[in-house]
Amino acid sequence: MAIYIEKPKCIGCKLCIPSCPYGAIDMVDGKAEFNDSCTSCGACAYACPTGAIVLEMAGKGEVDTSQYKGIWVVGEVTGEGKLAMVTAELIGEGRKLAAELDTDVSVVLIGHEIEDLAKRAAGYGADRVYLVEDPALKRYRTQPFTNVLTGLINEHKPEIVLIGATTMGRDLASRVAARIKAGLTADCTELTINPESKLLEQTRPAFGGNVMATILCEFTRPQMATVRPKVMAPMEFDESREAEIIRVPVSIDEKSIATKILEVIQDDSGSHVNLTEADIIVSGGRGLGDPKHFALIEELADAVGGAVGASRATVDAGWIPATHQVGQTGKTVHPKLYIACGISGAVQHLAGMSSSDCIVAINKDPEAPIFGVAHYGIVGDLFQVIPAMVAAIKERRGDSA
Ligand SMILES: Cc1cc2nc3c(=O)[nH]c(=O)nc-3n(C[C@H](O)[C@H](O)[C@H](O)COP(=O)(O)OP(=O)(O)OC[C@H]3O[C@@H](n4cnc5c(N)ncnc54)[C@H](O)[C@@H]3O)c2cc1C
């Protein structure tokens, strides 16, 4: 990748200067000129109104793949300023891949006043943390995060970049991959290193979940993948573990960012929908018979302090929004307790929940496949079983008079 300025086209408008997060553009004799801080992130090329700044990409097979080393995990910061669990999961997975490639794991943390998270990343297994802090990076926005991450990748050339398949990760990964002309495999559920080619084998559901496709990015670097939360296991947190912390100086002009965050509104339905973070999930299936009976599931979820999940049959029937769907084409979950109510246990549903620590199934059909994965099975009518469970829980808690 190369970036250069076609001087005759430069009109000296200076719009490129605030667009650069690395302070890499000076004006010399009324024309823009790069200094040594340029990372070829390309932000200025997008800001230039005359096309004077040209970003040249390598063609197929022209990338010198031998220059790219190391595994990177792009960290995610939660709304509460904590390290997202998916980051810990990816660091754990990164360690396994790094062992195969005999390399190390770096984490990129982008935000504002997040130094303590670098220590968390170290405790979860990072060897190195690139810490990028700026007030303009306090909350995720596509443009500045893309510019910063693209610049870092161009400068340090990691071989593999892993990002959580979260709302942020899906947005950021696709933008960065497009900017650096790398391939991207979205929503992976498995990652391995091919023992011969040493390429990253990226496996994900394809064709609506009917096949599992394994994808290779042979010609471009880095090999980029987003990975579903809760699929990979994090390492045990070790407070004594240390990482090299590299502070990356940036200076971001708020005026150069097209989007502004005016207000952060808490999603009130969060306690019922936040499936991937929930320790307890109560899921309803077609056995509920009617959308209004999801009230029973909510009641049980409230009683046990859990989130509400659903089978695809209920989502397809329009009984509940798709954000609740668990399974191959829904969310992969790994709660401590999963209660399946009126769910048959189709293989596609099991794909999203069978790794739960404890599964309780309520189904009136003793032959239902869900009992094959359940630790506790209740053969019975959910309309009798759920109210009895709720009453028993409330009684134990002393809720009832
Ligand atoms: C490509 C593809 C992807 C898919 N992805 C997903 C996915 O991500 N998630 C998913 O869930 N499905 C997925 N499916 C659909 C899946 O195959 C099943 O059709 C679906 O999971 C069935 O949902 P269900 O268990 O709610 O309904 P059913 O299979 O109809 O089961 C209803 C169950 O309720 C029981 N029941 C009925 N009445 C009562 C009662 N009163 N008390 C107790 N039990 C009762 C019945 O005995 C039955 O076992 C996918 C399918 C395909 C082809």
Describe this protein's structure:
The chain folds into three domains: 2-56, Alpha-Beta Plaits (2-Layer Sandwich), CATH 3.30.70.20; 65-254, Rossmann fold, CATH 3.40.50.620; 270-397, TPP-binding domain (Rossmann fold), CATH 3.40.50. The protein has 401 residues and is an alpha/beta fold. The chain is elongated. Helix content is 27%, strand content 23%. It is built from eleven helices and 19 strands. Helix 5 crosses helix 6 and helix 8 (294-304) runs parallel beside helix 11.
Fold blueprint:
Elements: E1 2-5, H1 16-19, E2 25-28, E3 31-34, H2 43-47, E4 53-56, E5 71-74, H3 85-101, E6 105-111, H4 115-123, E7 128-133, H5 142-156, E8 160-164, H6 167-180, E9 184-188, E10 190-193, E11 200-206, E12 211-215, E13 223-227, E14 244-247, H7 270-273, E15 280-284, H8 294-304, E16 307-310, H9 312-316, E17 337-341, H10 347-353, E18 358-363, E19 376-379, H11 382-397
Parallel strand pairs: 5-6, 5-8, 6-7, 7-14, 8-13, 9-13, 15-16, 15-17, 17-18, 18-19
Antiparallel strand pairs: 1-4, 2-3, 10-11, 11-12
The structure holds flavin-adenine dinucleotide.
